[in-house]
Each structure stands twice: as C-alpha cells, then as structure tokens.
C-alpha cells in the first residue's frame, strides 16, 4: 500500500515551529516510504482565514524545503462533498438541529451541577452538551426551523454508537485504541450558515484524498475517536494515525499562532537558515 500523508494548516496566522514539526513529520513519513505527501488548506472558518496567510504558508513550506504531490485542496472549494456526507448521516437518522445558544447551554449545565450525578466532562474538562434539543419533538423542531432560528447540526452520539457497535483504531506510536467517541458527546457537524465542521470535513477530506497515515499533533488524539466513528458510519476506509508530540515554548506552553517569536517568518527575518529552523523544529538534517 502506498503511504499517503498530509499537512492541513488553517490560514488564520503564520506558521510556527510546531507547524513546521508537523509538516516535516508527515513529509518525512511519506518520502521515506516512497509515498505521497499532500497539502490541504483547512479554510472552513471564512471569518478568520486570510489569503495572505495562505500565501505565507505555501512560501514558508517551500523555504523549509518541503514539496507536495498534486494540487492543494482547499476546503472552501468543496462544500458539496461535506453536504453529501451530511446527507448520508441525516438519512441514517443521526443528525438533529440544536437551537441552543451558548448562554442557554451554559445555563442548563449550571443547573445540572447540583444534580446527584452532574454532567460528564469531555477529556479537556469542558462539560458535555446536555442533549437539550435531542429531546425536541419533530413538530417542535419544524416550528423552530420555520421561525428561521439559527442552529447547529449535532450527531446523535448514542444512536451512532448503537449503529456501528464497538470500534478500534491504531496509532503508530500509542498502539491499538478502543474507540470512545462518547467522550466528546453530541459533536457539531455543521451549522445553518456553514455546511461542515472540523470533525466532518477532516474525515471526508482524508477519504477523498486517500490518506493512509494521518500525521498530526497529540492535541487531536481525542478527536480521532469521533473521526473513527464517522468513518464507520460513512463506509470509509480506515487509515492509521500518528499523533506526534507538541512543541512548547521556554515556559512549557504549547506553541500558538499568537506566539510570533516562534513563527517561521520571524526566524527568516533573523537570518536563520532553513536547516537551522528544521533543527529547531526537531528535524536536524
């Protein structure tokens, strides 16, 4: 099997050393296996994405010495792919509209805190969505839609798990994992004004692009449980994953786009060579 990896940044800022590490990890993994390395621009957040950041991403990657195979896939050019996948899930009766505002969700969670068994938390400590709109009747949903209210389309997690049964997935570093998508609750897959969310888009993209090894940061390890579930529901092939460690700053904090001092642009402005920056990113020549 041909190894196919990808690097999928969002054009909401300049690349930093953490991005460079992730890109180099995927690139090296593919090149050492004689496979293919793909570049995807995850620009579904049209309010924050900027063309100048996309141009900078392409320039910085090329400066680092990375090349990619085939054309760049931009998510904003493929809304139809995500709508088609969403339609499959809707046909399975696993999608429901959620009309709750963030304030309403927080209020219900707060009210539940006093219950003997309060709301469960996601792995990052955020309380799970309590399923308020999952309990609406078909007529109540129709009335709210007719009123033109904003909504998010959520996955009925319990129904989805019943449909697939137990699942597993494999990380090249951590080994075989029992899928536990319920840990993230009824995740949002789309919104009234956006035909996809990260969870749905990345799953669809990896299938369409024939990705066989998903290389990305350890911070997305928990999200993989949901992606494995979506693959099963949509009848997709199952890749393997490789969740690499995250780079941190001197204080031990994960690098972020707002950390301009660690941006590739800043190192270039300092006169650092590409080889030096690759070494700083954990990939010495």
Core attributes:
three-stranded antiparallel β-sheet, 10 strands, single chain, 10 helices, alpha/beta, three-stranded parallel β-sheet, 285 residues
Structural notes for this entry:
37% of the residues lie in helices and 15% in strands. It is an alpha/beta fold. It has a three-stranded parallel sheet, with helices on one face. It has a three-stranded antiparallel sheet with strand order 4-5-8. It has a two-stranded antiparallel ribbon with strand order 6-7. Strand 2 (36-41), helix 2 and strand 3 form a beta-alpha-beta unit. It is globular. The model is unreliable at 112-119 (pLDDT under 50).
Provide a quick synopsis of the model.
The protein is α/β, with parallel strands linked by helices and 285 residues long. It has helices spanning 17-32, 51-63, 79-91, 102-112, 138-146, 157-164, 198-208, 223-234, 264-269, 274-280; strands spanning 4-7, 36-41, 73-74, 95-98, 152-155, 168-171, 175-178, 188-191, 213-217, 240-244.
Any idea what the radius of gyration is? 20 Å
H/E series, N to C?
EHEHEHEHHEHEEEHEHEHH
Secondary structure tally: strands:
10
Low-pLDDT segments, ≥5 res: 112-119
Oligomerization status of the protein chains: single chain
Biggest sheet layout: 3 strands, parallel
Strand order in the largest sheet: 1-2-3
Shape: globular
The total of helices stands at 10
Overall residue-averaged pLDDT value: 91
Structural class: alpha/beta
Strand content: 5-15%
Helix content: 25-40%
What is the first-to-last residue Cα distance? 27 Å
